[in-house]
Amino acid sequence: MRLTPRGLWWLKGGLHIAFTLPILYLVYLVLTDNAGGDPVQYIIHYTGMGALNSLLAALAVSPLAKYLKQGLLLQTRRLIGLYVFAYATLHIAAFISLDLLFAWGFLLEEVIKRPYILLGALAYTILLLLSVTSFMVVKKKMGKRWQQLHNWVYLVALLAPIHFYWSVKSEIIEPSIYIVICAALVYLRKQKLVKYLPKR
Amino acid sequence: MTHHTRFTKGIKRQSAWDLADNQVTPESVFKDRRSIVKALGLGALGASIPGYVQAGLFDFGSNKSTSTFTTSPLQFSQPKAFAIPDPLTPENKITRHNNFYEFGTSKQDPFDNAQAFKVNPWSLQIDGLVDKPITLDLDDLTKRFALEERRYRLRCVEAWSMVVPWVGFSLASLLTEAGVQSSATHVAFETLFDPEQMPGQKNRLMGGGIHYPYVEGLTLQEAMNPLAFLAVGLYGKTLPPQNGAPIRLVVPWKYGFKSIKSIVKIHLMDKQPPTSWNQLASHEYGFYANVNPEVDHPRWSQASERSIGEGGLFSAKRIPTQMFNGYGDQVAGLYKHLDLRKYY
């Protein structure tokens, strides 16, 4: 069975619900006092995991489309990618507003001194660039360079789970699993990516 | 009103310590009253407390009370020397934001997973290089020593802090009773090991990879310092399990992980004992672990801290971290000859 445009419309609707519900659930948890006595770390972790999981979903689309021979599936990537950006934005907004409490000088110091925050900041900068260039108009204008720019998502796929691994105090099993999955999803693109490696 | 208002003005409520709120009022009425007060928005009447107003919509303040573990009121004195002016962190935040990996690694896990914890019977053994080894049972913990309340700042190595009204007795009074031998140089502490009750000890994923039982240690000099405290209570009542029932250490000039919970063993020895976080990552967590804004944790700054107080999400403050968490007058002398950068 082939995915029809109408089917795609429904799929996108479903994806919007799937990616929005966790945010509403977080708001519910916080408002009903179920996210802990001081929910700040909970919110930061929750939105960070949201970004990472959405990223896995975004990266899984094209291998899945290939495997299922459903080319139309590729059209969900922009939607999912923008949710990655949305979760990452919430993650950083929570860090700056709730943890740092807008101590900007301190933020700069944090980014410079802390390698895991630096990785996160770098990953977020890439996501920001990908998001502002995600519109059709921009894509057309950029031509070939658009694909080159958007290949940087594979760097995000490596930076994000390392950022997670580096940020935890001791419980490294979960971040290790994420690193493996992300590395595998990048590895699936090896043919596409070897082109970018320096030639011998 | 709720518990926390009684502390904020620094006035001792008359015999507040003889009866807890939930003792004078049947518990169901007590809870209902709190939710009615909350529903009417009367919480805002506590507006004399800074931060309460701005908390507004996001005030997830004081209505949650689903703990099933039973605590009981304690009798104690309130020595002036330990009544600091810092406003206290509300009880429901102190009891619902805990690092106690034996019950899970999220901050809320200990509250969620520890309510069925059994503290009776309990046995705390004091042995090693002592003249009279002592074994204390649950009753002894609250009856053998005169209890006092101490309001201590608690600074977590994760760069957040609280102000907590502990009830207990000084570690020195216990050690003195046991008669420390002259050869002793260090004190080792050990948390209960009971995987049936502590899911984090059973399941590595849940327990964060720590080697259990959790162990901690102090030098004998540190342990004999009057600030070193054994807490058996919190906010006038016996400790809830997530805060380390029935007895825990409190060492306010050190990062929170030194203040080991649910202690079953105190062992006097003549060498430095192993400590859990140091075993796990020695370049990040030293034996001393004194609060020190000038020595950063390798992965984050220790120069400032998020102070968790009254009110909602946006009411916390970022404050500069003080050397020895502000207890330098009492403890700096212990480290005169120690390079605190090397011995972090």
UniProtKB/TrEMBL annotation, chain A:
Cofactor requirement: FMN; heme b
Segments crossing the lipid bilayer: 9-31, 43-68, 80-104, 116-137, 149-166, 172-188
Entry keyword annotation includes Nucleotide-binding: no
Family annotation (Pfam families): Ferric_reduct (PF01794)
Subcellular localization: Cell membrane; Membrane
Record's cofactor remark: Binds 1 FMN per subunit. Binds 1 heme b (iron(II)-protoporphyrin IX) group per subunit.
Main location: membrane
Membrane topology, as annotated: Multi-pass membrane protein
Keyword entries, A-Z: Cell membrane, Electron transport, Flavoprotein, FMN, Heme, Iron, Membrane, Metal-binding, Transmembrane, Transmembrane helix, Transport
SUBUNIT field: Heterodimer of a catalytic subunit (MsrP) and a heme-binding subunit (MsrQ).
Protein family according to the UniProt entry: Belongs to the MsrQ family.
Its job: Part of the MsrPQ system that repairs oxidized periplasmic proteins containing methionine sulfoxide residues (Met-O), using respiratory chain electrons. Thus protects these proteins from oxidative-stress damage caused by reactive species of oxygen and chlorine generated by the host defense mechanisms. MsrPQ is essential for the maintenance of envelope integrity under bleach stress, rescuing a wide series of structurally unrelated periplasmic proteins from methionine oxidation.
NCBIfam families assigned: PRK05419.1-2
Descriptive protein name: Protein-methionine-sulfoxide reductase heme-binding subunit MsrQ
UniProt lineage: Bacteria, Pseudomonadati, Pseudomonadota, Gammaproteobacteria, Alteromonadales
Automatic annotation (TrEMBL), chain B:
Catalytic activity: L-methionyl-[protein] + a quinone + H2O = L-methionyl-(S)-S-oxide-[protein] + a quinol; L-methionyl-[protein] + a quinone + H2O = L-methionyl-(R)-S-oxide-[protein] + a quinol
UniProt function note: Part of the MsrPQ system that repairs oxidized periplasmic proteins containing methionine sulfoxide residues (Met-O), using respiratory chain electrons. Thus protects these proteins from oxidative-stress damage caused by reactive species of oxygen and chlorine generated by the host defense mechanisms. MsrPQ is essential for the maintenance of envelope integrity under bleach stress, rescuing a wide series of structurally unrelated periplasmic proteins from methionine oxidation.
Assembly and oligomerization: Heterodimer of a catalytic subunit (MsrP) and a heme-binding subunit (MsrQ).
Enzyme Commission numbers on file: 1.8.5.-
Key words, A-Z: Metal-binding, Molybdenum, Oxidoreductase, Signal
Protein name per UniProt: Protein-methionine-sulfoxide reductase catalytic subunit MsrP
Start and end residues of each Oxidoreductase molybdopterin-binding domain: 118-277
Cofactor note: Binds 1 Mo-molybdopterin (Mo-MPT) cofactor per subunit.
InterPro entries for the chain: MsrP, OxRdtase_Mopterin-bd_dom, OxRdtase_Mopterin-bd_sf
Protein's organism: Shewanella subflava
Cofactor(s) needed by this chain: Mo-molybdopterin
